[in-house]
Design goal:
- With 333 residues, the chain is an alpha/beta fold.
- It is built from twelve helices and eleven strands.
- The strands form two sheets. Strands 6-7-8-9-11-10 form a six-stranded mixed β-sheet, with helices on both faces. A five-stranded parallel β-sheet has the order 2-1-3-4-5.
- The termini are far apart.
Amino acid sequence: MKLTRRERVDPRETIARTLRTSGRVLIVCHLDPDGDCLGAGLALAGALEKIGVDATVACEDGVPDSLAFLPGASRVVRGVPDDVRIPVAVALECSSPDRAGCLAPVLERAGTLVAIDHHSESPLDAQLTYWDPKASAVGELVMDLIASMGVSVDRKIATCLLAALVTDTGVFRFANTTPRALRLAAELMELGASLGEIVRAVYEQQPAPAVRLLGHALAAVQHYEGGAIAMTIVTPAMLAAAGARSDDVAGIAAVLRTISGVRLAVVLEDRGNSVRVSLRARDGVRADLMARALGGGGHAGAAGAQMSCTIEEAAPRVRSAASRAIHSVENDA
């Protein structure tokens, strides 16, 4: 049956049946992939392969070094040839086609498109949608989906799913950590996933250039709104001085958020003709709403955006948006 776009059906059983019978599935992760998206994608691919479905995980930006330990990570591809037929494609946490980068046309030509997301903004327009903003991570939704497919979770799949939960909840410290997330994590550990190994791989194996870059970024921090906002700009000169790469910018915003009194941490990465914005928030400040106003998205506590402009144009816009985010919470109090 050819499904019509915009048809929203209940999701889990229909999607499970579609995936089981598809023969080949392409799973697409968003740009600048995090542990939740990649972990969920690799877990779903592993489950599909157990029932004989040819599954490929794709992400234009590849796999960050900190997530290379995930089982199956070496098989993630950055693109798909134009002549490859895609019966079913799954878009993970892509609220709009541009979040898939160069893989957006591949999603468009898929026979059936499935969107799975837990962000607060509406997910990508697809024929089948599994969307639950109350879920702590998209890995939680994929874990449900694997159960609906009737596939047993082995140690490799459990590791990918636990990595998804761990990274999106900040090792179970963020406000999106739910009792269910903790129960699922316990279940995954009983299936063989190691919380300690995941935490060490993601958070305790930082390359020296990334730590040097953090030092440069911290030295450049500016505070606004009485210290409620901490904002820094990572320049190409900083990356060069530290010997760091763009991937090493990840994690700086989370450090800024730990500063006493900071409710909104902002990191701008100057990429020449574009700017990557990373946001971390707490105490009621909504990083996702601010990111959405800048053309991005994410969670209440962690969000981001890509701005197609120079740093000189982006910085004042972001600073104004940050002030509005703080005032919005104060006005509602």
